[in-house]
């Protein structure tokens, strides 16, 4: 089976192309670093199955973060038959740099020239045949999001050949490169890197290539080359100049007479004052749509399941254990439908829309100075925004960050972002019973707490955060099909993982109540619950919430001895609802999130983060109770 690797710089449309080839099994998002682990899929080529690998975006083969390392590791370790290098035609000069390095790998290579429509909108006209002749590889123009050029690309993959040309530098530069190459070959220091590429990267100071030579007889030769070529700066400058020469040879740029609509839009959305106003308005609109659109749907769904509950109460009144189990299952299904359809689907759909349109990097740009105060950068907005869907991918997205300090701070803060499960509690409890204004207030409080926590962690944790560059991509209008599939990928974890947990947790809770075990659990945590001014009967709810936050809303009314969600105001005051929700928002992440944190930052940091969230939730819930009491 032939294996094809998709390689490209961040935001070049690589994952969109993968979706076209492999059937939407990878999520594409319009911000850099969206793909942090490579994904595999399959497609057919002349009745033969080929494996397609979507590698994380990388600017070069010199990795600077975990995502780029994954790409280089896969290119050397995987048995790859063909490399497809995706170029953004609208930023051709910058994109060709990676192509030059990939040509040095001496593997069959095809260049997919993506976003040709955007290049034309910018007034860039590219002679594809000329570019093909200059590079010595097959170049196929495509528009991945529209599926244009895919058949031609598959044909090129089938007939892919090794590059006919190599990157040649000036005579003086080549002299020093060849000196290092000869030393490597003479002393048999070769590894998986092609010899010339290894020599170039060693001169540029890339540790993976430099270290083996520094500990060998080639050390002196390498030092001479590094000194003469100014630690590789001369090579980099010549490569930049070569890319510019190629662009000037194959492309023409016509000056635009007036600003495009996108440029005019950015003057508002990236404005140092109006940009923040627009950002607040956009997110307020999202929450307004979700809250107001979700309430009538939730009422309708709850009404249906209230009738089913009533029927079960009548039909199984003489079969206590069976009644408890059946009611637990029905309540679990009802809670799942009452959460997913009214709130989760529209919320995740709108977040996906912001991702694909290209607005998220603009938020990162706006908030970069604010993030600096927390020891982070605008790029850290990616894990935070991902956290509104699920905390697990949010934590995994911290891999795009470079320093350990930044990863730990981002992991802690991302775990505080209300995921879709916590959102169900905010919307289904505070938004539904108290008012959407109070629900939005909780989101504002959450943001403020995250900012303050970040500032404190910046002072407490040692180390510095390196500077990072964030691409601002052009606006792109995603297809409805892509948005729906992307939303489904985000919701399916809820459907396949949370719903069984909801049903199972509901049944377990009814059995705990049936066998009167809840009293034992609640009595242990009674002093703690009294500190927060909450009924001791809901201690078991918070305990089960560590397994899965979706369980908390469902188990809340069951633990209070109520027959449905609509009866919660009979047992809890609005103040207690607020205290309970504040605690749920901030306390210990679910087990899946804890596991993800451990994987990314280690066990010790995970313990500190888990204990930190518990202490923070307790403090904030207690303060909420005091403020409500005073008011």
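^ structure tokens above, recovered residues below v
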């Amino acid at each position: 089976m032939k294996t094809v690797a998709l390689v490209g710089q961040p935001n070049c449309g690589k994952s969109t192309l993968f979706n076209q080839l492999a059937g939407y099994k990878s999520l594409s998002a319009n911000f850099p670093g969206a793909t942090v682990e490579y994904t595999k899929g399959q497609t057919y080529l002349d009745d033969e199955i080929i494996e397609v690998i979507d590698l994380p975006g990388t600017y070069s083969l010199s990795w600077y973060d975990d995502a780029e390392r994954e790409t280089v590791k896969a290119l050397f370790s995987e048995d790859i038959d063909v490399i497809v290098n995706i170029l953004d035609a609208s930023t051709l000069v910058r994109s060709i740099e990676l192509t030059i390095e990939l040509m040095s790998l001496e593997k069959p290579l095809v260049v997919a020239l993506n976003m040709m429509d955007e290049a034309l909108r910018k007034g860039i006209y590219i002679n594809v045949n000329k570019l093909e002749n200059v590079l010595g590889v097959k170049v196929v123009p495509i528009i991945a999001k529209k599926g244009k050029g895919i058949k031609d690309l598959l044909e090129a993959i089938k007939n892919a050949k090794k590059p006919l040309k190599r990157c040649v530098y000036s005579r003086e530069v080549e002299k020093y490169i060849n000196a290092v190459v000869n030393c490597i070959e003479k002393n048999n220091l070769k590894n998986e890197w092609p010899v010339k590429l290894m020599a170039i990267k060693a001169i540029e100071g890339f540790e993976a290539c430099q270290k083996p030579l520094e500990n060998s007889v080639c050390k002196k030769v390498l030092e001479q080359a590094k000194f003469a070529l100014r630690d590789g700066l001369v090579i980099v400058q010549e490569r930049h100049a070569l890319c510019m020469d190629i662009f000037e040879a194959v492309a023409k740029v016509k000056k635009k007479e007036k600003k495009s609509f996108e440029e005019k839009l950015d003057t508002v959305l990236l404005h140092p004052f109006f940009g923040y106003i627009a950002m607040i308005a956009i997110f307020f609109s999202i929450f307004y749509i979700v809250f107001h659109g979700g309430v009538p749907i939730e009422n309708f769904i709850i009404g249906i399941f209230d009738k089913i509950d009533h029927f079960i109460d009548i039909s199984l009144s003489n079969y206590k254990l069976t009644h408890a189990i059946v009611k637990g299952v029905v309540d679990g299904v009802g809670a799942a439908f009452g959460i997913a359809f009214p709130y989760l689907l529209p919320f995740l759909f709108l977040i996906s829309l912001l991702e694909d349109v290209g607005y998220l990097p603009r938020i990162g740009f706006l908030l970069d100075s604010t993030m600096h105060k927390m020891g982070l950068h605008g790029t850290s907005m990616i894990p935070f925004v991902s956290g509104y869907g699920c905390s697990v991918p949010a934590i995994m997205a911290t891999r795009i960050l470079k320093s350990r300090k930044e990863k730990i701070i981002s992991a802690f803060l991302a775990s505080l972002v209300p995921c879709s499960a916590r959102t169900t509690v905010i919307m289904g409890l505070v938004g539904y019973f108290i008012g959407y204004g109070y629900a939005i207030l909780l989101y504002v409080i959450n943001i403020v707490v995250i900012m303050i926590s970040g500032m404190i962690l910046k002072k407490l944790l040692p180390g510095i955060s390196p500077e990072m560059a964030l691409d601002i991509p052009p606006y792109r209008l995603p297809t409805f099909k892509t948005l729906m599939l992307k939303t489904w990928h985000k919701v399916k974890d809820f459907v396949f993982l949370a719903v069984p947990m909801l049903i199972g947790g509901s049944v377990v809770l009814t059995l705990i109540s049936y066998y009167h075990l809840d009293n034992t659990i609640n009595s242990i945590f009674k002093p703690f619950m009294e500190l927060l001014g909450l009924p001791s009967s809901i201690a078991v709810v918070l305990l089960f919430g560590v397994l899965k936050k979706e369980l908390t809303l469902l188990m809340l009314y069951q633990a209070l001895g109520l027959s449905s969600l609509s009866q919660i105001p009979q047992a809890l005051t609005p103040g207690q609802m607020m205290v309970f929700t504040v605690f749920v928002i901030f306390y210990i992440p679910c087990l899946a999130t804890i596991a993800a944190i451990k994987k990314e930052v280690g066990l010790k940091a995970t313990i500190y983060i888990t204990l930190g969230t518990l202490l923070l939730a307790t403090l904030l819930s207690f303060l909420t109770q005091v403020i409500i009491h005073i008011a």
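The CA atoms of residues 588 and 614 lie 5 Å apart.
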